[in-house]
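Entry 14. Structure prediction run on the chain below.
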Amino acid sequence: MENTMKKYKVIALSALIAAGFTSCDLTEKPTSYYEKDTYFETTDQAKMSVVGIYDCLAIDKHYGQFEMAMPASDDTYYIQGTGTDNTRRDIAHYMVKPTNTWIASIWEYKYLGIDRANFSIAGIEKMTGYEEDSNLKELAAQAHFLRAFLAFDLIKYWGDVPFKTTYTAGYDESFRGRVSREEIYDQIITDLNFAKENLQKDNASLSPEVPSQGAAHALLMRVYLQRAGYSLQQDGKLTRPDETKRKEYFNSVIAEWTAFQNKGNHGFYTGGFEQLFRGYSEGILNSQESLWEIAFNPTGAGYKDNAGTWATYNGPAVEAPGKNAPADAWGRANAFFRVLPAWKNFFEEGDERRDVMVCTYRYKWNANAGKHDKVENAKLTDWYPGKWRREWMPGGFVDPNNTGVNYCPLRFADVVLMAAEAYNETGNTPEAWKLLNMVRERAKATPITDANYSSLMKAPQVYDLPYIQDEDAAGKFRTALYWERGFELAFEGQRKYDLLRWGILGDALKFFQENMDKTLKGKYVAGDKFIKGQHELFPIPLGELQSNPALNNQNNPGYE
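Output returned:
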């Protein structure tokens, strides 16, 4: 499948701002200054309303930077430094409080994005000729997809939360009480069922910066799996649905997988695992493995507008260029995140994912030569997540932190592993192994069989896991899936929520801390800090509790 540089099929944000939509300023009054009854007169206006939703995702205070801390720490990585900062470190180390400023920003942007989606959906669906206009329906489907994506974040992060599907036109509509997550799940599924039939159809020429029907099927699979798993309830208990409901959800995953295969043109990226991730940093688009990418396109002086921090905050460290720096020198990378070094030894020697996941070097500036020099880091505490890197980016991005690297929340390998999990949980373990081994074979890892299971999935190759029983075939597959999703998807935003829905988040954090290298003592502290019955959810921001009387000043369990 042909690769292309970023095309940004989403209308440029500069055009959006010029047309009158402000950036995501957070005020009591919604930031769209249009009345929806008079605004939606042309297709271009409908497009503008949808771009306003994307705008709320593609900024540093949302998916550009702040979201990076939400899935950490898990059993693969953590944030450097354990001193309280009321921002990223407190989130990642399970020290978060209701006053956390990043939590407050993320909460606000989720709701602002949902409100803009509500605005778009209501306005577009009332436009003259909507039912016969496939372009308008596709725009509405984008808004439904984005609303579902953001609402799913709300459930994963906060559980039962205020939620509605109508646009907030005034102050009196701003404050709502909690809605059951099951009701929100139902709406998410309704939105995605619409999206999977009305988004653009998958083909080789599409830009993944706009979701396709395949992306909607994939997100539905993720939603059903999460819904089938454990979640923390308002009474402080970790529960999951009964077995009948769970089987229903797993069967729904399989149904979406079947439809995904029948509709889509997706598959493993043919250039290999490393080149897939090099492509993200290089700004190369392909619609083969990427189902959807949140687009970052820095413009203007300093590359700050619509810029993210992928490859700087979560990649290997790069010292800022100094004396004798040419115009195409790499920019700085602060490298706030650290990888748990044990994972490097868990991989087989020939697994292509190992040296992409774990980066053991940094770059220092050589002023005499006017270039960066690679330096191996002897300290295990200075090993980094390596999926996004400055060295893979085009030269000349000299802004201290910001980049134009896209974030891909949905890719084909994840879809294959989700389908495999559903098959195993419905009794078809042979099909589950077939799919999981497809992922391994792409990475040049040995397919797992009954004969080699113990040599690949037990000590000394990996840890023996005390929290997953593997006495039967289904249990062996669950153990293999635990490791495979780590090998394949580390740092991509799913790991923590995998562990949570499996009901083992606290167990895994504690176990990995107990078995970590002694040099990590005092640096990886998640196992000590995590409190079961509290840290499965984030606190509702204090400002929201104080301003919204419908919440009755009641935070999530364990937060005062």
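The chain is about 40% helix and 5% strand.
Filed with the rest of this week's runs.
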